[in-house]
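Project outcomes to date are best conveyed with an example. Our students and postdoctoral researchers have been running inverse folding experiments weekly, and each run begins with a structure described purely in tokens. The record below, which covers 411 residues, was selected by the lab manager from last quarter's runs and is presented without edits.
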């Protein structure tokens, strides 16, 4: 798991400086504000940053010339003072996001502001090899690039991997569900696409997306737990920082122990959360064909509503909810977050059994740090993973807009 976001503080202050020597800092401050909002007026930028109106005007003009922001219609919400134009992230600056999994390779173009503008899910009949991922992404990207309007540019690749990624991004150390070990996928993608590739664990980039745009925005202490075809992973924001650990592998929440003498896990232990709470159990419970797993949540909810084998499905869900609660209690006790965001198939457990997770967390009557934790559901699908992967690419651009665009792509 590697990311240039190491040490990045998500509890933003957005204070600028009127000193000319701090132009880079001010450009970064303004661009980050525009990037994290659906649209912000010049007046709002002035109030938030503390910079004067003329400085904001000059910074917005420079960012516009760099192709990073666009000015749109007058801010209709402003009721007093001089009318102020709205500043929005430019749709012409894009990152390519890649998320391989055991049955699909997801590829998307994501613009500044965390907007997915083009996404392709390439289904596979088995776990793809590294070379197959490179070939799939290369073919998809060629089509996407050809269709881009003039003036649009892709500034890098964000790779989200369901496994361990070497600090520094050199290779995928291990993705057990894909059968990968010591694979140089980031370098292979860079060579094939001629774009710099930045990589991280898929659940970690999901946490980054939640901190930037989702339920964790401006929340300093957050746990994101994501369940996918390859198991369960997590990302932890503590004190506004992504928790990395000594060697960059913090957040392996799928290996939290939840059951004594439980199912064997790929890590070599037994009874890990990801071995006991699985997407496959839900798929089997409703007899879902392999080609329809993308619609798992919708079909499962329909089966519960129409009563077809609902008791058997509810039994599977209840067991998974109880084990998920065991894992969450451990994680919450360790890091004391204010928000837990559940993504992937984990959100299905909450929707399919309303109140069951809360009851499992609080039903014993024992007070603990979970009493004040808010449980949120990530959006349906893999959008948070793809948006978070793009954030890996955008982080150095947001830190130094002019400098990043002047740096040769191969550096």
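After processing, the design step wrote out the following sequence:
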């Amino acid at each position: 798991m590697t990311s240039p976001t190491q040490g990045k503080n998500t509890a933003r202050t957005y204070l600028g400086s009127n000193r000319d020597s701090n132009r880079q800092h001010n450009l970064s401050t303004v661009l980050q504000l525009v990037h994290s909002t659906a649209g912000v007026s010049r007046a709002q930028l002035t109030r938030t940053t503390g910079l004067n109106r003329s400085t904001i005007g000059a910074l917005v003009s420079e960012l516009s010339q760099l192709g990073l922001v666009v000015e749109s219609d007058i801010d209709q919400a402003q009721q007093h003072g001089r009318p102020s134009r709205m500043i929005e992230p430019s749709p012409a600056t894009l990152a390519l996001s890649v998320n391989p999994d055991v049955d699909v390779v997801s590829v998307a173009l994501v613009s500044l502001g965390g907007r997915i503008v083009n996404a392709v899910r390439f289904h596979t009949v088995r776990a793809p090899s590294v070379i197959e991922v490179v070939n799939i992404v290369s073919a998809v990207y060629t089509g996407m690039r050809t269709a881009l309007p003039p003036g649009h540019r892709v500034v890098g690749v964000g790779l989200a991997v369901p496994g361990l990624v070497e600090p520094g991004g050199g290779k995928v150390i291990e993705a057990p569900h894909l059968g990968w070990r010591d694979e140089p996928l980031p370098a292979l993608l860079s060579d094939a696409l001629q774009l710099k590739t930045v990589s991280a664990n898929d659940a970690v980039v999901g946490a980054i997306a939640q901190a930037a745009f989702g339920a964790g925005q401006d929340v300093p202490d957050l746990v994101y737990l994501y369940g996918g075809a390859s198991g369960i992973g997590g990302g932890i924001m503590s004190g506004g920082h992504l928790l990395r650990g000594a060697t960059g592998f913090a957040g392996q929440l799928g290996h939290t122990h939840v059951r004594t003498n439980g199912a064997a896990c790929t890590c070599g232990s037994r009874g890990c959360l990801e071995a006991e709470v699985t997407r496959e159990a839900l798929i089997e419970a409703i007899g879902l064909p392999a080609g329809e797993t993308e619609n798992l949540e919708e079909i499962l909810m329909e089966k519960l509503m129409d009563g077809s084998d609902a008791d058997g499905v509810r039994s599977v869900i209840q067991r998974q909810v109880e084990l998920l609660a065991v894992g969450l209690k451990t994680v919450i006790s360790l890091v004391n977050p204010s928000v837990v965001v559940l993504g992937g198939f984990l959100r299905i457990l909450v929707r399919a059994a309303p109140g069951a997770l809360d009851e499992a967390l609080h039903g014993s009557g024992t007070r603990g740090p979970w009493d004040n934790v808010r449980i949120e559901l990530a959006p349906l699908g893999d959008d948070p993973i793809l948006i978070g992967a793009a954030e890996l690419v955008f982080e150095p651009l947001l830190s130094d807009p002019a400098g990043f665009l002047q740096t040769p792509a191969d550096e």
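The domain at 93-205+384-406 is CATH 3.30.420.40 (Nucleotidyltransferase; domain 5). The first strand starts at residue 40 and ends at 41. The training component of this project remains on track.
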